[in-house]
Design brief:
The structure holds 2 protein chains of 2 kinds. Chain A is of the alpha+beta class. Chain A has a single domain, classed as Hotdog Thioesterase (Thiol Ester Dehydrase, Chain A). Chain A is 26% helix and 32% strand. The radius of gyration of chain A is 15 Å and the shape is globular. Chain A has 4 helices and 8 strands; from the N terminus they run αααββββαββββ. In chain A, a hairpin with a 3-residue loop joins strand 6 and strand 7. Chain B has a single domain, classed as Roll (Thiol Ester Dehydrase, Chain A), CATH 3.10.129.10. In chain B, 40% of the residues are buried. The longest helix of chain B has 20 residues. Chain B has 3 helices and 8 strands. Chain B is α+β, with helices and mostly antiparallel strands. Chain B has a 6-stranded antiparallel sheet with strand order 1-2-6-7-8-5. In chain B, strands 3-4 form a two-stranded antiparallel ribbon. Classes of the chains: A alpha+beta, B alpha+beta. At the A-B interface, helix 3, helix 4 and strand 5 of A face helix 2, strand 3, helix 3 and strand 5 of B. Strand 5 of chain A pairs antiparallel with strand 5 of chain B, so a sheet runs across the interface.
């Protein structure tokens, strides 16, 4: 039997390395996301590459992909914060696009704004070279799976 | 292909743009299902690499976000019958139910209001028409990258 996501999260809680959790989620791996540990929660880095471009004229990263980075970062944060061994379900997401995202490394970090028993309210920000100039921000709600085991 | 681009309808041109396109739309294999001034529908073929939860094989929400954002962009191109200079201002999505594994996903978007500088859109993603898996509203800025932009008013 292959390693399940639950096993990957348990191992990550021991080692502090969440990259294997991320890589067990196909779409996050497809985007080439890299987890960079931080005391305030995982920072997800998305390397610039041709396949994430939305507007080839500018060029700029696809707005949907920026949304996907923000959502993925929120998911990783929830799993890192010991709120869930499973991938939480997204309920809704509002993305604000603040600046054109150039095709370079893009970073994102999430905070849990409000943590209920079943629902997590998240705020996520994405930035490029300068953290004080975010390229996008999101609010999202996630449904936390009922605890396991 | 030996096609005279002058004889193509705008919808056929958009379909060709997607087919021969690049970037994320190509990486996802997005295809144009239909395009009218009223509504534009894109199709995302099912792919294992787009899964967001390996335990359930449900697609990642971000894939749906990208599909919907693309459908909105193509819907604006259908509306204006041009390649408008646009930038997404915001996009809000409610994820109503998980996508069923092994089935294609569609997103239909419509432009419901255009002002001199903003376009307002609504969109749904679905696997069966009439049974949405996600509902979205989006606003786009027109003339985002040029100082002057003459939007063709509806």
């Amino acid at each position: 039997m292959t390693t399940t996501i639950v096993d990957a999260v348990k191992a990550a809680r021991e080692s502090g390395d969440y990259q294997s959790v991320l890589e067990s989620i196909p779409y996050m791996k497809f985007l080439g996301l890299v987890v960079e540990p931080d005391a305030a929660g995982p920072i997800c880095r998305m390397p610039g590459s041709d396949h994430i471009i939305g507007n080839p004229v500018l060029p700029a990263i696809h707005g949907g992909v920026v949304g996907a980075l923000l959502e993925s970062t929120a998911i990783m944060h929830i799993m890192w914060s010991h709120e869930s061994l499973h991938v939480p379900k997204i309920i809704n997401l509002t993305v604000e696009y603040l600046r054109s995202a150039r095709v370079v490394d893009t970073y994102a970090q999430a905070v849990i704004t409000k943590q209920g028993r079943r629902i997590a309210n998240m705020r996520v920000e994405a930035w490029q070279a300068d953290r004080t100039k975010p390229v996008a921000a999101a609010h999202a709600h996630f449904l936390l799976p009922r605890e396991e085991e | 292909m030996d096609v005279d681009p002058k004889t193509l309808t705008w919808a056929e041109k958009l379909a060709m743009m997607l087919e021969t396109g690049q970037g994320q739309a190509k990486a996802l294999g997005l295809a144009l299902e239909s395009a009218t001034r009223e509504r534009t529908v894109l199709r995302l073929p099912w792919q294992e690499k787009l899964v967001g939860n390996p335990a359930t094989r449900v697609l990642h929400g971000g894939v749906i976000t990208t599909l919907i954002d693309s459908a909105c962009g193509y819907s604006l191109m259908s509306y204006f019958e041009s390649l408008p200079d646009i930038a997404t201002l915001d996009l809000r999505i409610d994820y109503l139910q998980p996508a069923e594994p092994d089935r294609d996903v569609f997103a239909g978007a419509e432009v419901y209001k255009v002002t001199s500088s903003i376009a307002f859109l609504r969109a749904t993603a679905f696997q069966t028409e009439g049974d949405p898996i996600a509902n979205a509203v989006a606003t786009f800025m027109l003339g985002a990258n040029a100082p002057k932009y003459n939007a063709r008013q509806g």
